Amino acid sequence: MKKEIQLPEKPFIYDLTLEALQDWLKSQGEPAFRAGQIFDWLYGKRVVDFDDMSNLSKELREKLKASYQFVTLNEITKLESKDGTIKFLFGLYDNHAIETVVMRHNYGISICVTTQVGCRIGCTFCASTLGGLKRNLYAGEIVAQVVYAQRLLDATNERISSIVVMGSGEPFENYEATKTFLALMVHDKGMKIGQRHVTVSTSGIVPQIREFADWNTQINLAISIHAPNDALRSKLMPVNRRFPFADVMDACRYYIEKTGRRITFEYALINGVNDQPEHAEELGAVLKGMLCHVNLIPVNYVPERDYVRTPKEHIFEFKRILESKQVNTTIRREQGHDIAAACGQLRAKHMESTAR
């Protein structure tokens, strides 16, 4: 029997766009301009208690408390890497757990957020899919990850400058919540992150790639491909049976044509599986002439999987072959390796320990 999903007691205040909050205020007989004040408290001052919103009337604060709640992220674990990466494991209202990672770069601080509890995509090299999908996150639960991290960084006058939606789960299978989250992050009354400093990653959910293209923002799109053809991709990514490689590539071309923006293809290199010169040749032939960029990712070791990462010299050879086809290629810099910073690893350990 399927376990019933536990609902929160009240909707989350972070679920609301500015327009939705204005509509709610009007329904309460309050002026719409109060929405801007509330957003300043939420995203500018980052308070986590309605009573702290001192320029609102007590009556309005009581209405807010009666109708909405703040997201409670219970910090179960916080790990800090020697390279400055911080990984959080947060407990949610229903005792599920999610991961969030804060990374320091020479160009600023980025945060990697999660959009689902678990994942049903089933990529065979990823820890996120262990245990399957439990539920989608609410938009507010995605927002709360950024606000929580930024509140900690406020103490040292540091600022999150970029966001990657690449944590556990498939954002485009939780599309509306993800879209609301993105809108709040880039809004000039929200977190004020520049659109070009936000990237959302998908495993290739074709209808939503096209819908995202039609949204026509400056937000970056990344596609996990991990193979140059259907046969191999279906072995590594069961989602390919639903959305075949050719359909994904067609949707990517539609995105490029519609937006004029470059697309990023993520390719996890697995020793002896998808990292051979012939794979690079085939991938280069598919992508040649496309407005794109390939990000090569040495696969992370996951105890429950038996994949081994590609030797360094083979990674550079794969890159050389792609570049010989005029395909722009980089190798992802590894961060947080000493704290199990790959998607799903910390949660998988937590699930195992709680099961015991």
From TrEMBL:
It catalyses: adenosine(2503) in 23S rRNA + 2 reduced [2Fe-2S]-[ferredoxin] + 2 S-adenosyl-L-methionine = 2-methyladenosine(2503) in 23S rRNA + 5'-deoxyadenosine + L-methionine + 2 oxidized [2Fe-2S]-[ferredoxin] + S-adenosyl-L-homocysteine; adenosine(37) in tRNA + 2 reduced [2Fe-2S]-[ferredoxin] + 2 S-adenosyl-L-methionine = 2-methyladenosine(37) in tRNA + 5'-deoxyadenosine + L-methionine + 2 oxidized [2Fe-2S]-[ferredoxin] + S-adenosyl-L-homocysteine. It is found in: Cytoplasm. GO terms for biological process: rRNA base methylation; tRNA methylation. Binds 1 [4Fe-4S] cluster. The cluster is coordinated with 3 cysteines and an exchangeable S-adenosyl-L-methionine. InterPro entries: Aldolase_TIM, Methyltransferase_A, RlmN_N, RNA_MTrfase_RlmN, rRNA_lsu_MTrfase_RlmN/Cfr, rSAM, rSAM_sf. PROSITE patterns: RADICAL_SAM. Keywords: 4Fe-4S, Cytoplasm, Disulfide bond, Iron, Iron-sulfur, Metal-binding, Methyltransferase, rRNA processing, S-adenosyl-L-methionine, Transferase, tRNA processing. It is an enzyme of class 2 (transferase). Its EC number is 2.1.1.192. [4Fe-4S] cluster binds at C119, C123, C126. The active site is at E99, C343. GO terms for molecular function: 4 iron, 4 sulfur cluster binding; metal ion binding; rRNA (adenine(2503)-C2-)-methyltransferase activity; rRNA binding; tRNA (adenine(37)-C2)-methyltransferase activity; tRNA binding. Residues 105-338 form the Radical SAM core domain. Belongs to the radical SAM superfamily. RlmN family. Specifically methylates position 2 of adenine 2503 in 23S rRNA and position 2 of adenine 37 in tRNAs. Reaction proceeds by a ping-pong mechanism involving intermediate methylation of a conserved cysteine residue. This is Probable dual-specificity RNA methyltransferase RlmN. It comes from Paenibacillus antri.
